[in-house]
UniProtKB/TrEMBL annotation:
Highest classification ranks of the organism: Eukaryota, Metazoa, Ecdysozoa, Arthropoda, Hexapoda
A Pfam match: EcKL
Domain called CHK kinase-like: residue spans: 143-338
Domain of life: Eukaryota
Protein name per the record: CHK kinase-like domain-containing protein
Organism of this sequence: Photinus pyralis
Length: 424
């Protein structure tokens, strides 16, 4: 086909034009589809994608409506993620492991979760981009998704803290996603366990201790420690040292391994760039979540605490923390009822206890997310320029200490909130 060589040269040799033809046939109810044009667009900002190379296309096609035989022209913006072509980038960041997990999410996990809600004749959660195709073999991996920018969705910045309206919308988004998983688990436990077991832990496992813990200890903790030292009383610094010096990585492993009654399919990577928002007339209308490389079967509290600590600032947390938790619970319970499960599967007291148990994990992930999001553009690593085949992570993710007082305060206050709340 005319465009196959072009698509395969920049995405993957496994990405066939015939897949686009089939997609257009199904999505637009067409037959005799011909791809007429593929227009390449710009990629993403450096620092917003650490695990893949991203390309944007608009694909145009022509075909006949099955209903009346009329020839129509249609187009769809598509975003593709593929394995980095730089061997250093690929191996240093273990991109193939993350790609494999995200492909499992789209091809197996989300497919089953979506089918479950369709069988209920109710769509409680549709806030994920349409997946056109996803493939993983460790070499030719790619994921092709509908680019929802044309629907008015845009990405959050890496560094901004969210106000109450934004945070509430995303908390309710998580509530519907998590409730869908818990209802599935409640009503079809064996089928749910099959998809849950299909996911792989991509971050917090003893298998990856050597890959990540040196970066955490030598690069990340010094940045956080310095911010606390500059902005908070010494007692907070002592508590930070006590928590982080006692095998912090091992504690995060245990958080991910805990499979209690409130373990569901979690997003896993709840920092700002993984949410797209839609506005109409300046009013916030909708949100969707993207990027499921870190999806795991774990406590719903992991997503909540990661999101609240990485995407909100101290004044908002102090004023609205309880309201955000209550709003999440309200939406969660409503979603359970819609899906036919007992609303008592999650009481507000259960939720608060789960958040307390998950807070150490959320703070740990937020330390990394905030450190990355507050970097100046000039300090963001150029991943394409990594020299050598496999460079230690701590040599690539170099983190200069924060000099800006407001940035120091944002990092320090995250720890202050968790410590003051007796979360650890």
């Amino acid at each position: 086909m005319e465009f196959s060589n072009f698509l395969q040269s920049i995405i993957s040799c496994r990405f066939e034009e015939s897949m686009l033809v089939k997609f257009f046939e199904n999505a637009f109810d067409l037959e005799n589809v011909t791809i007429t044009n593929v227009e390449n667009k710009d990629g993403v900002k450096k620092g917003d994608s650490y695990l893949s190379e991203v390309n944007n296309f608009t694909v145009s096609a022509s075909g006949k409506h099955k209903s009346d035989g009329k020839v129509v022209d249609v187009s769809l913006p598509i975003i593709t993620k593929c394995l980095p072509k730089s061997v250093g980038w690929l191996k240093t960041f273990r991109s193939a492991d993350f790609f494999n997990n995200e492909c499992i999410f789209y091809n197996t996990v989300w497919k089953a979760m979506n089918q479950f809600q369709l069988e209920k004749n109710v769509k409680v959660f549709e806030s994920i981009p349409l997946c056109i195709s996803a493939y993983s073999d460790g070499t030719n991996d790619y994921i092709a998704l509908e680019n929802v920018n044309y629907k008015g969705f845009s990405q959050l910045t890496r560094s901004g803290g969210l106000d109450f309206d934004h945070a509430q919308l995303i908390m309710r988004l998580f509530a519907r996603f998590h409730a869908l998983g818990l209802a599935f688990k409640d009503q079809k436990p064996e089928e749910f366990q099959t998809i849950a077991n299909a996911l792989h832990e991509t971050y917090f496992s003893e298998n990856y201790r050597n890959w990540y813990s040196k970066f955490q200890i030598n690069n990340l903790f010094p940045l956080i420690r310095d911010a606390i030292k500059q902005q908070l009383p010494e007692s907070y610094l002592r508590r930070f040292d006590e928590v982080t010096e006692d095998d912090f990585f091992g504690k995060q492993i245990k958080s991910c391994e805990r499979k209690g009654r409130l373990a569901v399919i979690t997003h896993g990577d709840a920092w700002a760039p993984n949410f797209l928002l839609k506005y109409e007339g300046g009013n916030l209308m909708d949100a969707i979540m993207i990027d499921f490389q870190l999806a795991r079967y774990a406590s719903l509290g992991l997503d909540i605490t990661f999101f609240l600590y990485s995407c909100t600032e101290q004044p908002m947390r102090l004023k609205y923390w309880d309201r955000l938790i209550e709003g999440y619970h309200e939406t969660f319970v409503s979603t359970l009822k819609q899906l036919g499960s007992n609303s008592q599967l999650l009481t507000l007291e259960d939720l608060k206890e789960e958040i307390k148990l998950s807070a150490l994990f959320g703070v740990g992930m937020s330390m990394e997310a905030l450190a990355m999001s507050l970097l100046a553009d000039d300090d963001v690593a150029d991943l394409k320029g990594i020299e050598g085949e496999e460079v230690p992570l701590e040599n690539v993710w170099v983190l200069p200490l924060l000099k800006d007082v407001q940035k120091q305060q944002r990092v320090a206050n995250m720890l202050k909130h968790a410590i003051d709340s007796n979360f650890f």
